[in-house]
Amino acid sequence: MIRVLFFGQLTDQIGGASLLLTTESLPTESVLLVRDALPLLCEQLPQEAVELLRNESIMLSVNKQLATWDTELSEGDELAFMPPVSGG
Amino acid sequence: MFDIVITEDDFDVTQEYAALRDAAPHAGAIVFFVGLVRDFYHSADLNQDEKALEQTIDHIELQHYAGMTEEVCQQVVDEAHARWCLDGVRVVHRIGKIYASEQIVMVAAASTHRANAFDAVQYIMDYLKTRATLWKKEVGTQGQNWVGQKQTDIAALDRWQINTVNTEKSETEKQ
Q1: CB B75 within 8 A of CB B4
Q2: Per DSSP, what are the bridge partners of residue B99?
Q3: Of the candidates B39, B18, B37, which has an alpha carbon nearest to the alpha carbon of residue B27?
């Protein structure tokens, strides 16, 4: 399982703050990258919602560390999609 | 004392000042910044079309990424500490539902001379605004609105010469 989190306006646009991705169907020897999570997300979300995640303004993190589309994902990881921040 | 607190609770500046003063007995200067929730959209950030949508804010809802926010704030404070000689820093950022005119954030720095404390507080606020994993939703007379990143906040980083938002991106891209 990979836990996927959505923050800020993505929470409203996606219609939820988190979901779980099952990796069981994938070959165990294959390397899973952040970009590979998108087709898996398409199984649970409308295509328009997944398109929002591809926006270049979206920041990515894996286990609370800033990540890129090429960061590797492992079983049990936490992947987050974050719009530009607006605290302070 | 180099503390960061992310909390739903309001803070008392008098108590915070006393705590920082106790923790930094040799300081010659303590600088405080307190940010408040505005009760209206800040017109300077809006274009003409957006001005038509100007509304009164009842409250904001601040969402954050628990764990990551603390980590990023700690990095920013550590950077400030590396850049200026400081005797102490205290950051409190509220999350959750905060009404108009209430306190939202506090950054305080103690140092031997005032210039370092002023600079450190400005630096920490500038980078909290652009890096801390917090998202603000304004709830007002005309509905709800997620606040986007302001170009003025990005531009403010120029005074520290390194634009960390872009630097971080290019560094992670190299990995």
Answers
A1: no
A2: B59
A3: B18
- Which pTM does this prediction carry? 0.87
> Which residues are A80's β-sheet partners?
A5, A61
CB contact under 8 A, A7 and B172: no
Residues from chain A contacting residue B175 (CB–CB below 8 Å): 68, 70-71
Lowest-confidence segment of A46-50, B80-84, B141-145 by average pLDDT: B141-145
The ipTM value here is 0.92
- CB < 8 Å to B62, chain A: 87
Q: What is the DSSP letter of B56?
A: B
Interface test mutation site (partner B, options A33, A60, A86, max chain B beta carbons within 10 A): A86
Dist CA B82 CA B16 (whole Å): 23
Report which of A57, A53, A49, A9 is spatially closest to residue B146, judged by C-alpha positions.
A9
DSSP 8-state assignment for residue B120: H
Closest CB to B135: pick one of A7, A66, A68.
A7
